[in-house]
Amino acid sequence: MTISADAGAARAPGRPRDPGVAEAIFDAVITLLSEGASIEALSVEAIAAKAGVGKATIYRRWPGKDELILDAIAAMKSKIPVPKGESVRADLLAIMKSSAVSRDVDRDARVIPCVALEMRRNPKFAKLHEQVVEQRREISREVIRRGIATGEIRPDAEVEVVITMLSAPMLVNKLFGPNPRLRSETLAEQVLDIVLDGVAGPRLQR
């Protein structure tokens, strides 16, 4: 999900926008944050200069800095996979792996604290961030509810608690950097199996 100025609005006829420009702008945002800039201090001027574009190019695409930064952060993650419905485990694992994929783990670890700080400082940013992550959460909720219906997850399992238990270890590993005692490439699968063992329904307990 993105929250750019294009969302829900038809574009005027003209030359199609170069997708490489948006990618350069996103890369500029993430690079500046990873180099130590706070979201509060980061300016559109600095982003434009880093990306090699004019400010007008940015304002044609996003209504403000908050929307741009959140789109850049959302672009760090892989596209949310469509659940295949074969099993709760397979669908949740695909969702978790899509969140864990990163082109630069160290850079991600430096960006996440910036986001957390700005969410506490800026209510507007926090609300927009919630909109960005809610789509991924809702897909996870649907998978878990389906698991309850099929007996893969026990009926008294709290959906929001299960989602939190699945996401928190992954976030901590990103926030503080990969734990050398953990295998990051298999962490999602290990966390998922431990959580599912605790909430397994009758279908998985046979």
Set out the fold topology.
Elements: H1 19-34, H2 44-51, H3 55-61, H4 65-74, H5 88-100, H6 105-121, H7 123-150, H8 159-175, H9 184-199, H10 202-205
Helix pairs in contact: 1-2, 1-4, 1-6, 4-7, 5-7, 5-9, 6-7, 7-8, 8-9
Characteristic key phrases:
mainly alpha; Tet_transcr_reg_TetR-rel_C_sf; AcrR family transcriptional regulator; transcription cis-regulatory region binding; 206 residues; transcription; Arc Repressor Mutant, subunit A; Tetracycline Repressor, domain 2; 2 domains; elongated; 10 helices; DNA-binding transcription factor activity
* Total DSSP helices: 10
CATH class of the largest domain: Mainly Alpha
Distance between the termini: 39 Å
**Radius of gyration from CA coordinates:** 19 Å
Low-confidence blocks of residues: 5-16
CATH superfamily of the largest domain: Tetracycline Repressor, domain 2
- Global morphology: elongated
Report the β-strand fraction as a percent range. under 5%
Major β-sheet profile: none
Q: Encode the helix/strand succession as letters.
A: HHHHHHHHHH
Give a description of the structure.
The chain has 2 domains: 20-73, Arc Repressor Mutant, subunit A (Orthogonal Bundle), CATH 1.10.10; 79-197, Orthogonal Bundle (Tetracycline Repressor, domain 2), CATH 1.10.357. The protein is built from 10 helices and no strands. The longest helix is centred in the middle third of the chain and has 28 residues, at 123-150. By secondary structure, the chain is mainly α. Residues 43-62 bind DNA.
